[in-house]
Specification:
By secondary structure, the chain is mainly beta. Helices cover about 5% and strands about 35% of the residues. The strands form three sheets. A five-stranded antiparallel β-sheet has the order 3-2-4-7-10. It starts with a strand and ends with a strand.
Amino acid sequence: VWVDADAFTDTDEHQIVTGKIVPVEGTPMDFRTKKKVGRDIEADYLPLHIARGYDHNWVLNNDRKFAKVAEMSSNVSGITMEVYTDLPGVQIYTGNYIFAETGKGGVIYKQRQGMCFETQYYPDSVNHENFPSCICKKGETYCTKTAFKFMTKI
């Protein structure tokens, strides 16, 4: 996984956003250089303990311009997914609460056998003045763009 973000939004013990923006440097939240998502997921780091893995909003470096902000790939399948957006954040969730879900063809999915990239405004941004505003007032037009690009290596 690679994410173009120098920080993430902090949460309390109930995973409610505190309003604090935390630098990723020197933490398991640093995906500025591509790394295996499982490399640090069990690290002794409070935000990972609280969420049982990754379930956090990264503060993107895209300056609210449509750009590539994240990438995930598999050495096994050869599939790569790129994420492009003009939104200021991306929530990354690693299936921390999947314990025995039946999927397509009767396959049973277990904890961390899935991963989501959800482009967004920062969670609870209406209550934090230091976060980019998500409010669209009467008469304003709301327009945002997100794209997911999939590729395979043959």
